Amino acid sequence: MIEFKNVSKVYEDGTEAVKDFTLKVRRGETLTLIGPSGCGKTTTMKLINRLIEPTSGTIYINDKNIKDYNIHQLRWNIGYVLQQIALFPHLTIEENISIVPEMKKWNKKEILKRNDELLEMVGLDPSIYKNRMPNELSGGQQQRIGVIRALAADPDIILMDEPFSALDPISREQLQNDIQKLQKEIKKTIVFVTHDMDEALKLGDRVCLMKEGRIVQLDQPKQLIMNP
Ligand code: ADP
Ligand code: ADP
C-alpha cells in the first residue's frame, strides 16, 4: 500500500532527518512509528503526504510513485490528523467535517448523513454537537472531530501524528479505544506516530522503532515485547 524504497531526507540546513529508509505498510494495517523526539517521525509522515520531497529514494502508494499522482488526488486520499487541533474556528463542527467531501462534490444529503454517522461513531450526539463551534467543545472532543474529519472523505490512508499527546489521560484512553474500534470497522491503512510505547503497542499491528532517522526494529507488538 505504502512503500518507502531507500528514502533519505536532508533538510536545507544539512540535517539528515531520514536515512535510507525502506519500509512497506500493508493495506489495512496500522503501523505505529515510535522513537525519541527528532528521530524523523514527522518527516516520514510529511513525505507520504508530499508536504516535503525526498532527497533520494522513492515512495510508492499502490505501486505508483507518489510523484506521478496529481497532488490534490493524493492528499484527498490521505487523511492527516495533527497533534495541534486544527479545526477552523469560525466554522461549525458540521462545516469543519464537510470541507473535503464538499471539495469532492459529494451529494449534500450523503455528506450530512455520513457526518451524523461519524459523530455517533466517536460518541458525540449529532443533534447536540453538529451546530456547535469548535470552542464550545472540550480538547478531547475537538480532537475527536479532528479524527473524524480526516475520515470524512473516506481516504484509503490515514496519517496520525501524535494526535492525542495534548490530551488528559482519560480522553486519551477513550480516543485510543475509538481508534481500535475504527480499525475493526473500516480497515483503513493507518500510520500512527507516537512517543508513548504503551500507545504504540496497543494500537499497532506492527511497531516501527526509529532512531536518528533509521529503523531500529520493526515487528509485531508481541515480538517487540519479547525482544526489547
Ligand atoms: P515533534 O513533536 O515531532 O518532536 P518538533 O517540536 O521537533 O516536533 O518540531 C515541530 C515542527 O518544527 C515540525 O514540523 C518540524 O518539521 C519543525 N522543525 C523541527 N526542527 C526544525 C528545524 N531545525 N528547522 C526548521 N523546522 C524544524
Ligand atoms: P520527530 O517527528 O521524530 O520528532 P522530525 O521528523 O520532526 O522528528 O525531525 C527530524 C530531524 O529533522 C530533527 O533533527 C529536526 O530538528 C530536523 N528537522 C525537522 N524539520 C526540519 C526543517 N524544516 N528544517 C531543518 N531541520 C528539520
UniProtKB/TrEMBL annotation:
Top EC class of this enzyme: translocase
Domain named ABC transporter: residues: 2-228
Protein's UniProt keywords contain Acetylation: no
This enzyme's EC code(s): 7.6.2.9
A GO MF label: ATP binding
Subunit composition and interactions: The complex is probably composed of two ATP-binding proteins, two transmembrane proteins and a solute-binding protein.
Protein name: Quaternary amine transport ATP-binding protein
Protein's organism: Oceanobacillus longus
Residues of the full protein shown: 1 to 228 of 355
